[in-house]
Specification:
alpha+beta; four-stranded mixed sheet; 4 strands; 8% strand
Length: 226
């Protein structure tokens, strides 16, 4: 039996944060794919409050929430540090990671929401992009010119945001509006770690396009039954 197990969805940015950290540390683990629409008793019992992936098991004990799991992995396993050693840099990494993590629902709503909720989310995403465009000027990494914690959490804006944009046809990010962010993003998606540790962009895009079509079909069906 594997000492480390991970419950997740293959298309989940939260799951991939955890997998990325495990791979950086060189930790061997067993991956168990969950079904979004038929969650296992193992998932429901190990995360009874949120009932969400990812859940990491270490020596049979579950740890929930990707941000918490990242810090647990960094503190528990030997290998390259994920959080910076310097206390100020560590605080900065946590700040930017929380900033990005707090935007996940907003980003999703900007591309999949409806009506006023979607319009508000679009405005908030554009405000986020302005902040990132300023912060990432002449930068490759968020903190201390070294890949780490905040950059893992940045998979939201580095990869998934572009997939959401292309799959939905809603264009919020352009190089004219946000040149520094786009320059950083292009370096991000082409770095060796992203190519090795994150899923194929084409696979994510195909999955998202199917999801968008299914959502549109469900909405159309509902409207004809009113």
């Amino acid at each position: 039996m594997a000492q480390v197990k991970l419950l997740g969805f293959w298309y989940s940015l939260f799951t991939h944060r955890v997998e990325w950290a495990l791979k950086i540390k060189g930790v061997k683990y067993e991956y168990i794919e969950e079904d979004r629409y038929n969650k296992s008793s193992l998932l429901l019992e190990s995360n009874p409050i949120y009932k969400k992936v990812p859940v990491l098991f270490h020596n049979g004990k579950p740890i929930c929430d990707s941000m918490v799991i990242l810090e647990y992995i960094d503190e528990t396993f030997e290998g390259p540090s994920i959080l910076p050693k310097d206390s100020h840099d560590r605080a900065l990494a946590r700040f930017w990671a929380k900033f990005l993590d707090d935007k996940v629902v907003t980003v999703v709503n900007a591309f999949l929401g409806k009506g006023e909720e979607q319009e508000k989310a679009k405005e908030e995403v554009c405000e986020m992009l302005k902040i990132l465009d300023n912060e990432l000027k002449d930068k490759t990494f968020f903190v201390a010119n070294k890949f780490g914690y905040a950059d893992i959490v940045a998979n939201l804006v580095g990869l998934w945001l572009g997939v959401f944009q292309e799959g939905s046809g809603i264009e919020l990010v352009t190089s004219e509006k946000f040149p520094n962010f786009c320059g950083w993003r292009d370096e991000y998606v082409n770095c060796s770690q992203v190519k090795e540790y994150l899923p194929s962009r084409n696979d994510l895009l195909a999955f998202f396009q199917v999801f968008v079509r299914a959502q549109a079909a469900a909405a159309a069906s509902a409207s004809t039954q009113k």
